[in-house]
Amino acid sequence: MKRLWIACAILALLLGATLWQGLSAIDYLEDMAVSLENAQDLVEEKEDWGQARQISEEVFSTWENHKFHLHATMNHRDIDQVLFSIQAVRQYLQLEEMDQYVAANAQLAAQLRLLVELEQPTLENIL
Questions:
Q1: What does the pLDDT look like over 82-98, one tens digit per residue?
Q2: How many Å apart are CA 82 and CA 109, to the nearest integer?
Q3: Helix, strand, coil percentages, rounded to 5, for the chain
Q4: What is d(CA 114, CA 94) in angstroms, rounded to the nearest whole number?
Q5: What is the pLDDT of residue 48?
Q6: Which of 85, 91, 87 shows the shortest CA–CA distance to 114?
Q7: Is residue 64 exposed (0-12), middle (13-18) or buried (19+ Cβ within 10 Å)?
Q8: Percent of the chain with pLDDT strictly greater than 90
Q9: Rg of the chain over all Cα atoms, to the nearest angstrom
């Protein structure tokens, strides 16, 4: 009987750790997507490329800080697509090309939101 309780405790610990890592990833990925949308609004409404660049670099820095966690817990193909989109957004920010920047930035925000959706503890994600 003691083995059963130990096994249940280990299972509960693993479940808690899994939920914690998923919810923490959801928090910072959603924050990143919102920040990118704010940067895009600055460019579209005020053409404030400097502030948009600063906000975007903060998002890219957050990505770099969490890269190990994301590589360890997510599909590498999804991570590679985000990295490619980050490079595109950086390039269009530097060139200050409005249309291409808006498209690349929207795509990057959508990819981050997709990662959020993949981390949510829903039945379809568990099964």
A1: 999 999 999 999 999 99
A2: 9
A3: 90, 0, 10
A4: 26
A5: 95
A6: 85
A7: exposed
A8: 75
A9: 18
Burial class (CB in 10 A: 0-12, 13-18, 19+), 62: middle
Token representation of residue 30 = 């959603």
Using an 8 Å Cβ cutoff, are 116 and 29 in contact?
A: yes
pTM of the entire predicted model: 0.89
Predicted confidence band of residue 74 (pLDDT cuts 50, 70, 90): confident
Yes or no: say if 63 and 86 are a contact pair by the CB < 8 Å rule: yes
DSSP 13-76: HHHHHHHHHHHHHHHHHHHHHHHHHHHHHHHHHH--HHHHHHHHHHHHHHHHHTHHHHHHHS-H
**How far is residue 56's CA from residue 96's CA, in Å, rounded to a whole number?**
13
For the chain, the straight-line distance linking the first and the last C-alpha, in angstroms and rounded, comes to 29
Q: Per the structure block, which two tokens stand in for 18?
A: 């899994």
Identity at 76, one-letter amino acid code: H
Contact 25, 70 (CB under 8 A): yes
- The token pair that represents 89 in the structure block: 């957004």
Encoded amino acid at 96, one letter: E
